[in-house]
Protein: Folate family ECF transporter S component
Amino acid sequence: VALQVILNKLSIGDPAVLKFSFGFIATALIGYCLGPWIGGWSMVVSDIISNTILNSGSLFFPGFTLSAFIAGVIAGMFLYQQRISWQRILIYEFFQILLTNVIGTTLWLYLMSLSSSSSSHTFMALLFIRLPKELIMWPIETLLVLVILRQLSRLNLVAKKSEK
Structure:
């Protein structure tokens, strides 16, 4: 959870539209080590800590907490007690990016912009702004998560299905 908070805080870009961070690495590690349900709730704790205790000016919005839970569940479903292959990571990253980043985050940003008098983006406008970044990040995140999880799996720190 601490790693997730730190990696999410180390970001660049405008959180209201486009933000780049390394939080996806911690999300994958949480899912790989803890499984879907504990991973999901760990992501909720991480989101609440990041957006309340360590808040740096942005507003807390429960939609992002829901997305964090979904991200942890997806990571756990794809990675927990599974053999790490590039195909598995590619598919995991596809669903993670599609459901939490493209659909979830875009929806939450759109809903937040409705309540703000300074900026009112349409959902489609936000989607078209955000989609190229997500398409570029998909192979990059896949490669980084693959390398990190393969190295972690070689350390044998996490029990596999056959070991339980």
